[in-house]
Design brief:
Its main location: membrane. One of its GO terms (biological process) is oligopeptide transport. The chain is of the alpha+beta class. The chain has 17 helices and 20 strands. The structure holds the ligand NCC(=O)N[C@@H](CCC(N)=O)C(=O)O. The site of the ligand NCC(=O)N[C@@H](CCC(N)=O)C(=O)O has 11 residues, from helix 5, helix 11, helix 13 and helix 14.
């Protein structure tokens, strides 16, 4: 092993953790703006955007198997990391290029003319990123673990904690930075939201990650790959199953483990190693449920945040920025757990090496949306633009008294026709122009209705509503939260109207016929609330972030180290990939339950997930109780020693009796393995 030590730690791990920091910056930075890119750049709807997003995340956690097989069986971890990092960086560059709208904007109107080009290039980019990020992920963690000697167990545990901190440091920074970059405007012919920059910076960070990793090259301990181990494993398992089936009759004595049926053909060391791996993989079965809940931060929880109030006083938080709570909590909780809680638990004599905590989903639902018409209905709004109340009689309905400057929402069957309304009563048919969902990104959707006999121009610093004809209305414009001042103009005369906005509301502003330009027009505009502003504060999401992150710290950091320490030497990356595979399954569950099953009530979906997690938690606790810790290095050393001794004996006294003895010894050694794994945790 590498002997260059700093404070008892190999110097090489410095390059590995910096590489991980940059790589995670690249991954999470790109992921933070991905759904918005699908929605606003590629113009996909919510469902398609969410489905492709979760499919991509799931793919990123499926490809570790590929990377691990290549690393453990063929190229070794070092070369696999280098080659796949190049693939990864190319993918990130492809994403950045796919987001340059000018490439296909031949008419220079600000929108791409060939969406197919952008879709194809971004899908190719995402595929390469999934291959790269997933492929190197199990290799980097295991490669870091490889840098420690047998006597450095404590340092290796600390390494995995620091490794996790770097993951979250990178993710925290990028989740803050890339949404800011995305919000900038850039372009050659026309200025648009700068997704290319938001993808370009992660691409640059991936190149930095690769360069840092290469700089450390001379300092790493590089374990040699040990042949096509996965093929051997599959063949060995296949043979054991076949052999067991062939000897299913009662006349054959039972063996301790079904894998022992491979003994006739396969090396006992390989069989023992497969047993170690299978034992751990069996323990992983309930784990995807944790990731099912965990990975909804990026979708369901962010969508929930769009319906909440993000005003934290001096700070206004955007819905997608709430995700940064997770890395912030990780950066705080990991040091507290490592330096305080775990040592305290150890002092109390409790064994707490394998933890699995469930989190509670605090589902806060809000009724800020009005009742919208069903598909067989239409919604009408009656606006009285006059200065006196009027009585309106609609066919088949009682007479309505409509006060001055008021709106009356009215649901009716599509086919009813209304005629002969008073000139000052304006009729809106909502199917064509009313907003029926919360405005995006916590913005407010605003429109104006002109009740004057002259055309009025309305504008603010952020939006231009254009010239509104008499008794007509403008399109909706998006206004951010806070105070907005609208300038109302007719010819050379103007006046100003100011009001405050919260998050996620929709208003129709009526300009009265009595408005006099040149004076204060504050009293001559009436605001009618179509959709209430978000009333539940985003801070209420913090407890749910806290619980899920506390669960993550106890479960995921230890799980990473557990997967390394319990894996045989030739399958370290493979077991890391098995661990990551549970994340992929978790995301597929989200895809199936949340996206395809479409449970109508969101609270019912949350309750379903939380109940499943409680059940899984109980099952996992029982499984973990019966799990016995092993020391793969020691077991492998015992086997190797025995094999060497047998070889020596074979050389000096070849003969049938000796061969039998070797066979017996081998079986004894195998029994020792079984005994060694009987001790409970
Ligand atoms: N806080 C998220 C995080 O740290 N994620 C890690 C680990 C994921 C895992 N399944 O181990 C990451 O590497 O992104």
């Amino acid at each position: 092993l590498n002997e260059k030590l700093v404070c008892g730690y190999p110097l090489s791990i410095f390059f590995i953790v910096v590489n991980e920091f940059c790589e995670r910056f690249s991954y999470y930075g790109m992921r933070a703006v991905l759904v918005l890119y699908f929605k606003y750049f590629l113009r996909w709807d919510d469902d398609l955007a969410t489905s492709i997003y979760h499919t991509f995340v799931a793919l990123c956690y499926l490809t570790p198997i590929l990377g691990a097989i290549v690393a453990d069986s063929w190229l070794g971890k070092f070369k696999t990391i280098i080659y796949l990092s190049i693939v990864y960086a190319v993918g990130q560059v492809a994403m950045a290029v796919s987001a340059i709208h000018d490439i296909t904007d031949s008419d220079r109107d600000g929108t791409p003319d060939s969406m197919t080009f952008h879709i194809v290039l971004s899908m190719v980019g995402l595929f390469l990123i999934a291959l790269g990020t997933g492929g190197i992920k199990p290799c980097v963690a295991a490669f870091g673990g490889d840098q420690f000697g047998e006597h450095q167990d404590r340092q290796r545990r600390t390494f995995f904690s620091v490794f996790y901190l770097c993951i979250n440091g990178g993710s925290l920074l990028s989740t803050i930075i890339t949404p800011v970059l995305r919000a900038q405007e850039c372009g050659i012919y026309s200025k648009q939201k700068c997704y290319s920059l938001a993808f370009g910076v992660p691409a640059a960070l991936m190149v930095v990650a690769l360069v840092v990793f290469i700089i450390g090259s001379g300092m790493y301990y590089k374990a040699e790959p040990q042949g096509n181990i996965m093929l051997d494993v599959c063949k060995c398992i296949g043979f054991a199953i076949k052999n067991r089936y062939r000897h299913r009759s009662k006349q054959y004595p039972k063996r301790q483990h079904w894998m022992d049926w491979a003994e006739e053909k396969y090396d006992k060391l390989l069989i023992a190693q497969i047993k170690m791996v299978l034992k751990v993989l069996f323990l992983y079965i309930p784990l995807p449920m944790f990731w099912t809940l965990f990975d909804q931060k990026g979708s369901r929880w962010t969508l929930q945040a769009t319906t909440m109030d993000g005003n934290f006083g001096a700070l206004v938080i955007q819905p997608d920025q709430m995700q940064t709570v997770n890395p912030i909590l990780i950066l705080t909780l990991v040091p507290i757990m490592d330096s305080l809680i775990y040592p305290l638990i150890k002092k109390c004599g409790l064994n707490f090496t394998s933890n699995f905590y469930f989190s509670f989903i605090l589902s806060n639902f809000q009724k800020t949306l009005p009742t919208f018409p069903s598909t067989s209905q239409s919604q009408l709004k009656l606006l009285n633009m006059g200065s006196n109340s009027v009585t309106v009689k609609l066919p088949g309905n009682d007479a309505l008294i409509l006060p001055a400057a008021q709106v009356y929402p009215f649901i009716n069957n599509c086919n009813t026709k209304f005629t002969n309304l008073l000139p000052e009563v304006i009729l809106f048919k909502s199917a064509t122009n009313d907003l029926t969902s919360k405005p995006q990104e916590g913005n407010n959707a605003i429109r104006f209705v002109n009740g004057m006999k002259t055309a009025v121009n309305v504008s603010t610093a952020a939006a231009d509503f254009g010239l509104i004809e008499p008794f007509y209305y403008s399109n909706y414009s998006q206004i951010k939260n806070g105070k907005a001042t609208f300038t109302l103009r007719s010819g050379s005369q103007s006046c100003e109207y100011s009001t405050n906005f919260g998050f996620g509301s929709s208003y129709t502003f009526f300009i009265h016929s009595t408005l006099v330009f040149g004076s204060n027009c504050q009293d001559s505009v009436t605001a009618v609330e179509d959709i209430k502003p978000n009333s539940v504060h985003m801070a209420l999401q913090i407890p749910q972030y806290f619980f899920i992150t506390a669960g993550e710290v106890m479960f995921s950091v230890t799980g990473l180290e557990f997967s390394y320490s319990q894996a045989p030497s030739n399958m370290k990356a493979v077991l890391q990939a098995g661990w990551l595979f549970t994340v992929a399954i978790g995301n597929f569950i989200v895809l199936i339950v949340a996206e395809l099953a479409k449970i109508p009530k969101q609270w019912a979906e949350y309750v379903l997930f939380a109940s499943l997690l409680v059940a899984v938690c109980v099952i996992f606790s029982i499984m973990a109780y019966f799990y016995t810790y092993i020391d793969p290095t020691e077991i492998e050393a015992q086997f190797k020693k025995k094999i060497n001794e047998d070889d020596e004996d074979d050389k000096s006294k070849p003969g049938k009796a000796e061969v039998e003895m070797v066979k017996r010894d081998s079986i004894k050694c195998h029994d020792e393995y079984d005994k060694a794994t009987q001790t409970k945790m």
